[in-house]
Amino acid sequence: MSQRLGEARRPVRSSRMMVVIPIAWIVAVSVVDVLAPPHIHLGPLLVAAPAITPLFGGPWTVGLVAALAVVAQTTIGVLRDPDELLSANHEAQILALLLVGASLVVFCAVRERRAKELRQVRYVSETAQRIVLPPLPSRLGPLRTASLYLAAEAEAKIGGDLYAAVRTPSGTRLIVGDVRGKGLTAVHDAALLLGAFRFMAHRRADLGELVAYLDRSVCQDLEEPGRHGETFITATVLDIPDRHGRVRMVCCGHPPPVVVRGGRPATVSVLHPAPPLGLGHLAHPRYHVESFPFEPGELLLLYTDGVTEARDTTGTFYPLAERITGWTEEDPDAFLGRFERDLMDHVGGHLDDDAAMIVIGRGVTSAA
């Protein structure tokens, strides 16, 4: 909390220091104008002071600087020639300062109100996202996990990225996915799928049957009254056994997992991809369960396309496998922290799409 308060105070202190610039400008213009020859008038330059103040100040600060500019313009007229104060030219300059100052004050007030509304919308969006998508527990049986959801900063809409994990008698089942679209509809679809997954993950012995059930759940929701347009969800569903063994997986149009072995990433091959959830009624797919090895000391990386489609300033996508090559962190939290920093460095600190990331490490299993 103290760190957040400190971060909030720094911009306030900085803006107070910046006020010195327009005030110094007013003083400088006033002094030079009073000392200048009678045929030289620098008063119109005073408008620059309130004009630059909105860059760092609010309506009260802009109003103060504008008032000082008007006082300075009046003082210049009195000191140069009292009769000039009543001239049409001097009155026009004062009137122009008043109009510019008032306009800038209104502009700053509207800007601050909209910024406050946007902060409130983002706060509500992030709160709703945390409720629908809480972080995964750090331990799932013999698995160590770290999860992260990064909201896009381009807009305040809630995204549809999702993930969840359910413990079963023999292991852990996970899902990671991405709903087409944004907003409340995407959150509704994500919550529906997560609820169906948590309810059925330990009731369906076969992974293919579980994915078929999830597809039917999404399709049935699309048939509800009031639903318009096409919606689908890309997803990968995994079954990770507690004892050493191969991870079983069904990939439904989602980016494949990556296994990191000694700093060498290997993208899991998907030989029989299934259509995204919600489109099964069109293709009537047979869900092929694929498998791949995942041993102690390795890390399993799951993610959404907000990661691989993140662009830098030149429009280059984030090269996931290339960037993480050579990373030797074995702790999921440490790996995920480096992953986040590297991704944000690539995009310059601003994501255009939501991104979800999960890092899983397998510990030494017991005989249980």
Describe the structure.
With 368 residues, this protein is of the alpha+beta class. The chain contains eleven helices and eleven strands. A six-stranded antiparallel sheet has the order 1-2-11-10-7-8. A five-stranded antiparallel sheet has the order 3-4-5-6-9, covered by helices on one side. Helix 4 (59-80) runs antiparallel to helix 5 (88-132). The two termini are 42 Å apart. Residues 1-9 have low confidence and may be disordered.
Could you outline the blueprint of secondary structure elements for this entry?
Elements: H1 2-18, H2 20-35, H3 48-52, H4 59-80, H5 88-132, E1 139-140, E2 143-150, E3 161-167, E4 171-179, H6 184-200, H7 207-222, E5 233-241, E6 246-252, E7 258-261, E8 264-267, H8 280-283, E9 290-293, E10 299-303, H9 305-308, H10 320-324, H11 332-347, E11 355-362
Helix pairs in contact: 2-4, 4-5, 6-7
**Largest β-sheet summary:** 6 strands, antiparallel
Helix count, DSSP H or I runs of 4 or more residues:
11
Shape: elongated
Strand content: 15-25%
Strand order in space, largest sheet: 1-2-11-10-7-8
SSE string, helix = H, strand = E?
A: HHHHHEEEEHHEEEEHEEHHHE
What would you say about this model in short?
By secondary structure, the chain is α+β, with helices and mostly antiparallel strands. The protein is about 45% helix and about 20% strand.
Features:
alpha+beta; 368 residues; six-stranded antiparallel beta sheet; 11 strands; disordered N terminus; single chain; 11 helices; five-stranded antiparallel beta sheet
